[in-house]
Write a structure and sequence with these properties.
about 270 residues, alpha/beta, TIM Barrel, eight-stranded parallel β-sheet, two-stranded antiparallel sheet, globular
Length: about 270
């Protein structure tokens, strides 16, 4: 497994995203992923599956210290006291003493960012999380957060795949020693039918999805593909035995378009 290093954190380059995974399925997929060699699991308060993620972690028999667990605080809990309380609730659901990474899930302009970041840094000081970061932050918000936060931020978790150009965000992250963690890295499954990626993959005996994940990892980006299919789990992690050429990297980067974003809500920031 490769790692992405950022402000003291070592983030496994491929993790399991658990959005929309629920109940027994969620626990089973987490357990299976860890048995296959995954060491990075991503959840969030809003996913309502933290308990099942914890269950899968315990059932796997993998040592807790070996697994990088991320959860995310929902925007309604950004007031300082609320942020601390909701983090305690997350830990109780996960049945863990701490997470490895705690993120602000989306920006919330209704609460001063400085106050929220102060609370996030305080939760880290209390030992509830090893590292802190943000998610769905734009370049301007990254700069604002880095300036306002009393502790180092280790990542911005954003949508990133070949159909969406995130060069600006990637540059802002690396300029601040932060990692970019890509959610929806295979564009919610759309990548699977991409002929150009499949063609590149033929050379390496890899699928379009594996080529796509490799493209992300070669940019020093961590990716958290979600799947409920056990066979896909092993496919997604088998990307460390080949390397794309500079030309192939450029070809894939050229696939992006302004309409490439798949996750957008009314409360989203004004994207770069």
């Amino acid at each position: 497994m490769q790692f992405v290093e950022a402000n003291g954190a070592r983030i496994p380059a491929i993790g399991l995203g658990t959005w929309e995974l629920r109940g027994r399925t969620c626990a089973r997929v987490v357990e299976q992923a860890l048995r296959l060699g995954y060491r990075h699991i991503d959840t969030a308060q809003i996913y309502e599956n933290e308990s099942e993620v914890g269950e899968g972690l315990r059932a796997s028999g993998v040592n807790r210290d070996e697994v990088f667990v991320t959860t995310k605080v929902w925007t309604t809990h950004f007031a300082p006291n609320d942020l601390e309380r909701s983090t305690k609730d997350s830990l109780a659901r996960l049945r863990l003493t701490h997470v490895d990474l705690l993120l602000l899930h989306w920006p919330n302009p209704r609460i001063p960012l400085q106050e929220t970041l102060g609370a996030l840094a305080h939760v880290k000081e209390l030992g509830m999380t090893k590292h802190i970061g943000v998610s769905n932050f734009t370049v301007a918000l990254i700069e604002e957060a880095v300036t306002a936060c009393p502790a180092p931020l280790v990542c911005d978790q954003v949508e990133y795949h070949p159909y969406l150009d995130q060069t600006k965000v990637l540059r802002a992250c690396s300029g601040n020693g932060m990692a970019l963690v890509a959610y929806s890295p295979i564009a919610k499954g759309r990548i699977k039918n991409d002929e150009a990626l499949a063609r590149i993959g033929e050379k390496y005996r890899k699928t379009a999805a594996q080529v796509c994940l490799r493209w992300l990892v070669q940019q020093n980006v961590a990716a958290i593909p979600r799947t409920s299919k056990i066979e896909r789990l092993s496919e997604n992690i088998e990307i460390f035995d080949f390397e794309l050429s500079d030309d192939e990297m450029s070809q894939i980067s050229a696939m992006s378009s302004p309409k490439g974003r798949l996750t957008d809500f009314g409360f989203a920031p004004k994207w770069d």
